[in-house]
Every structure is written in structure tokens, then in C-alpha cells.
Structure to design on (329 residues):
């Protein structure tokens, strides 16, 4: 997450709303191979599929916080560009998700236009696996910040997710618009699970909500707010981890709502690192167990993702939480 300094620039997160209880995992202790911390992370991945990753007190983590702060500034500069300039870098779905997505290009669960825009930068171009996508000149001059954000230790990735191989992994900058009017107090990004393996999310203003275990997406009382924490990334597992683990790990439903309390008056900026498998990786489960939503398939990751995207676009698939174990009382 961003540093404490950036949190000073926004109204406080309210204390009178229902927030989700999420584990906070120390990156420093994980890197020290602390057994208790590893077990804590494993439990969080199986029960909720979300946790806070505390970057503070770790050399790599502190460097990431500095980089995240700078990327927030770059993101604001991108979204402040005139619409005519941003439209020169439009994404081309389903051919490519890279580039700019305008506000209102997607729909919420009520079929209303969404209230956010994003700008995606692909890992393949940043790592030199393919040609770099077209980018504004001022982004090209600061491209090292994006490459630094990808520079995690090699053992962070599994053998099926090498950063030097083609994949759909991307850095996503997001702007969700302020909600000053009562008509804006609705969902900004529809409920969903992530397709990939792991998402690392940094934000300062609230708005993220997680569906509680056993809850229905149509029940407003089943959603819980996430309170952003300085120096902590929000980590959530995606559908690929459910598939590979044979359903042992959880991919939980979440959505972006309007920001709570006084925060509704400001724009909400986010930074997401969306990790996806190598395009040619097999999606066959690595663990043999019977679990709903897990396919016995030899499709490649690219084929698997396209199949799922097409099913959603045709209305043949329903967004729902997948996998994991029950949360203990």
C-alpha cells in the first residue's frame, strides 16, 4: 500500500461501518521463512482468499512502498490527460486489455454504466518479451518505476508463472470517480472474482467490498468494506489458484462501491498488479480432489481465460466465489 504520507491527503475512513476481518501477514517474516506466518498466510488463502501484506520493516517492502507512491502520482497524471489523448491508447477487447478503458464502457449488476476508468500496462512489453505497447511520452520517461514494481525475487513465482514468458500479467492504474451526489451512491465496478493467480492491490480511499462467506451478492447486508492500511498491500487470490489447487484455495467475490463517509467527495485512485499464468501453462489441477468449479482440463492458460471470458460475455456464466475451506467460528 501507499505510505502514511499519502493517507494524510484524503478524508478519514469512517469507523461506523461494517468492515471485513482480514489477517495481516508480515512480508519480512514470510521472507524469513517463519513457519507460523506461513501457516497464517495459508489459512487466509483457504478461508477468505484475501489478506493484508505488511511491507513495513522489510527492505524489499519499503522499496515497494516508495515505488507505489510514485506510481500513484504517475497514475493521476495519466488520468488527468485530455480525453482526446487518452483515447489514442484505447484497449481493444478481446484482442487486448492493454491501454485505456473509458468510464462507462462496462456495466454494473444493475446494467448501469460503470464509474471507473483504467490504464493497463502489460508485463510482456515491460520485460522485453514483446514490443512495448504505445504509451504517452511522460510515461515512457518514467517507465523504470513500472519495471521496478515487477522486480520481485524469482522464487515469488511458480514454474508456471515465469515473468520472462508471455502472459496476461499487467499493472493496472484505476480511477474511480468521486460520488458527491446521491445518485452516485451505487456500485462503481460490478462484483467479480479475478481470473488470474494473485492480485496485489494498493489504494488509499475506501470502496472495495468483499462478500462474506455464504452470502448472496444480491444481499447488501452480506458485503463488508475493506479499510485500507498504510504500508500494506491487499492480496487476493484469483480463479487460477482455485483451479491449480483443486479447490483448496479460495477466490472470493468482491466489488468496488462508492467510497464511504467523507471519502465519497474525492476521486479514488488504485494500483493493481494482476498476475496471470504463462499463456502456455496447463490449467490441469495440481492437486487431485473433488471440488465444485474445478475443471479436469488440459487447456492452456490462454485458452482457459478466453473460454471463461466468452462465457461471461454471452451470459452463460455467473460470477461467484470459488473454492476454499469454511471459516472457523
Amino acid at each position: 500500500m501507499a505510505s502514511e504520507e499519502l493517507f494524510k491527503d484524503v478524508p478519514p475512513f469512517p469507523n461506523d461501518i461494517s468492515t471485513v476481518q482480514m489477517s495481516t501477514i508480515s512480508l519480512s517474516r514470510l521472507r524469513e521463512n517463519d513457519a507460523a506466518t506461513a501457516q497464517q498466510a495459508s489459512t487466509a488463502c483457504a478461508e477468505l482468499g484475501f489478506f493484508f501484506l505488511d511491507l513495513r520493516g522489510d527492505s524489499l517492502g519499503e522499496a515497494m512502498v516508495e515505488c507505489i507512491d510514485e506510481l500513484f502520482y504517475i497514475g493521476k497524471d495519466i488520468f488527468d490527460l485530455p480525453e482526446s489523448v487518452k483515447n489514442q491508447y484505447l484497449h481493444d477487447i478481446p484482442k487486448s486489455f492493454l491501454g485505456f478503458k473509458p468510464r462507462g464502457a462496462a456495466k454494473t449488476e444493475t446494467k448501469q454504466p460503470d464509474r471507473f476508468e483504467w490504464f493497463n500496462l502489460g508485463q510482456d512489453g515491460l520485460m522485453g518479451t514483446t514490443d512495448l505497447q504505445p504509451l504517452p511520452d511522460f510515461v515512457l520517461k518514467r517507465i523504470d518505476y513500472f519495471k521496478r514494481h515487477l522486480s520481485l525475487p524469482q522464487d515469488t513465482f511458480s514454474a508456471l508463472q515465469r515473468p520472462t514468458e508471455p502472459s496476461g500479467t499487467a499493472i493496472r492504474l484505476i480511477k474511480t470517480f468521486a460520488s458527491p451526489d446521491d445518485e452516485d451512491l451505487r456500485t462503481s465496478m460490478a462484483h467479480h472474482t479475478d481470473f488470474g493467480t494473485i492480485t496485489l492491490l494498493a489504494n488509499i480511499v475506501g470502496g472495495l467490498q468483499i462478500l462474506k462467506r455464504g452470502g448472496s451478492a444480491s444481499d447488501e447486508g452480506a458485503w463488508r468494506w475493506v479499510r485500507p492500511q498504510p504500508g500494506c498491500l491487499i492480496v487476493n487470490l484469483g480463479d487460477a489458484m482455485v483451479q491449480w489447487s483443486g479447490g483448496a484455495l479460495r477466490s472470493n467475490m468482491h466489488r468496488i462501491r462508492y467510497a464511504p463517509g467523507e471519502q465519497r467527495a474525492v476521486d479514488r485512485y488504485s494500483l493493481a498488479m494482476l498476475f496471470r499464468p504463462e499463456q502456455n501453462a496447463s490449467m490441469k489441477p495440481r492437486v487431485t480432489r473433488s471440488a465444485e468449479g474445478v475443471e479436469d482440463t488440459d487447456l492452456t492458460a490462454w485458452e482457459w481465460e478466453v473460454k471463461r471470458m466468452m462465457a461471461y460475455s454471452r451470459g452463460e456464466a455467473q460470477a461467484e466465489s470459488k473454492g476454499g475451506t469454511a471459516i472457523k467460528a
